[in-house]
Design goal:
The structure is a homodimer. Chain A is mostly helical. Helix content of chain A is 74%, strand content 1%.
């Protein structure tokens, strides 16, 4: 399998979905333009790719494109939730970042008021789009609603928003390991794991598979966030697309600050090994998710 | 019917629902406290009351309390969406208000970062709570999802968020009637009408009833917003619970600014008469909604 090619195909498929969602929407043009700006700033699309890969992972044979088309809106909703969280996190009252994905942040272009509204708009649109695309068959519908619930909880105050709150509260403090872990599991890992679990459950109810992707997601999410912390320390603006050193500027609690750079790299590798081992029982079926986990170690943005 | 007593009973029923939602939630304590602060600042609960009244309006006989208990979370979700929009609207980057419902605004107490997160948290929690309480029976479930979709669209960029964007963009401009109407229909009326329509559809599919409450809601929403504009001009801090004159301070496009105070009062009365007339065919069944519309004219907050 050519991992890069397969990943890029999925990204194109997601981008096509996102474009058509935005294009079809009737709204005040300013807020729509601001939403589109951040959505199309060229992210990695990690969460929707994980969703689609988990869906395919749960297919007994190959999935038809018609089947994937039916759940693509849910994959796009995950990217909208992720993007809204970035817009709000970048605000002056939060992380006060000027660059994101190599471009000026939303509020730098549209002003704070519109950036807040664009974030609100993307979060709400994620739910609108999922609700507009519920399947008709009762059994599918029930699984779809379970998937929506998993996503909504991971995005909410018991997940991502809880993590961001802890992150805000810990600025300038030395913090301890349990706070750092709370931030990482809630802020990043929750939505990553939810992307995988909702992908599986949108296809079928299978406790064993759900547990496997949940464990994989937990390890992947931790590795991803540690790498994020490392890149903030070692990356450059061009490669990273955002200003490095912002964690240090904000005296944030990070892995490298707590454990040093080498130890953090080692921890990240260990988490990736853990993620890969969760897929071993599934052989060929888990190949893409395995390669995806390994690719985290080569992240430069 | 003792209108005030009946209204207050519904408010207590909603408050009880909101309290149990917040109390059950596992989250970072700071963001939960900020959400609770604004939720419990003593609003009128207009939207959930409209939802419950529309649900009862759609009942052939009287509704059982068990039935109402099943849809109460959706009524509470409407209040959470409304409250999140107030928290974000009050932010310094938006309307920059220091008081709301007689208390310091959310960001004045918790800071801007937490206020943004509390707003995000309430919006997301509205969907979590609705998804946690979907009914099991297929037919009910299908209507429930339609109700959720109506709510989500009215809250989103084609509804409330679109209206707030227009409101932000029109500050300091003289504006014309169509802009003023766009702001009012989207910012306020959309969620009010959605509360009524979702209430009916949660009970049954009935095009005639849906049209009746939609027309009623449109007129009520306009009257409500015009009264809001009037109160901003004539009310006092104690009665209003927020600083009057803020529209003028922000050079906002309002009905009194455009048509003068007397003409605005007349327009508001006309909208209420229109709302009341939509309920005439329903006699006794529409009494509460009729009295509710008339009460808007006596609003002092």
């Amino acid at each position: 399998m050519d991992f890069q090619k397969t990943y890029q195909e999925k990204v194109l498929y997601i981008n096509e979905g996102l474009n058509s969602i935005i294009r079809q929407r009737e709204s005040h043009p300013t807020v729509l333009r601001a939403m589109e700006y951040s959505l199309q700033a060229g992210g990695k699309r990690l969460r929707p790719v994980l969703f689609l890969s988990a869906y395919e992972f749960a297919c007994i044979d190959n999935c038809s494109i018609q089947e994937l088309d039916q759940v693509r809106p849910m994959a796009c909703a995950l990217e909208m939730i992720h993007t809204y969280s970035l817009i709000h996190d970048d605000l002056p009252a939060m992380d006060n970042d000027d660059y994101r994905r190599g471009k000026p942040t939303n509020h730098k272009v549209f002003g704070e008021a519109i950036a807040i509204l664009a974030g609100d708009g993307l979060l709400n649109l994620a739910y609108e789009v999922m609700l507009e695309n519920v399947p008709l068959e009762t059994e599918k519908l029930n699984r779809y609603i379970k998937a929506m619930l998993i996503i909504s909880r991971s995005a909410g105050v018991s997940g991502m928003i809880g993590g961001q709150t802890a992150d805000m509260e810990n600025q300038g403090s030395n913090g301890n390991f349990s706070e750092l872990e709370y931030i990482h599991t809630h802020k990043t890992e929750a939505l990553i794991t939810a992307s995988l679990k909702s992908g599986v459950i949108a296809k079928r109810e299978d406790t064993e598979l759900l547990n496997a992707v949940a464990k994989y997601g937990k390890a992947l999410g931790m590795a991803f966030q540690i790498t994020d912390d490392i890149l903030d320390l070692t990356g450059d603006l061009q490669e990273l697309g955002k200003m490095p050193g912002s964690d240090k500027k904000m005296s944030k609690l990070t892995y490298p600050a707590r454990y040093g750079l080498e130890m953090s790299k080692k921890m990240s590798r260990q988490y990736i090994e853990q993620a890969v081992s969760c897929l071993e029982p599934y052989g060929k079926k888990g190949e893409f998710l395995k390669l995806l986990a390994l690719s985290i170690l080569d992240r430069s943005r």
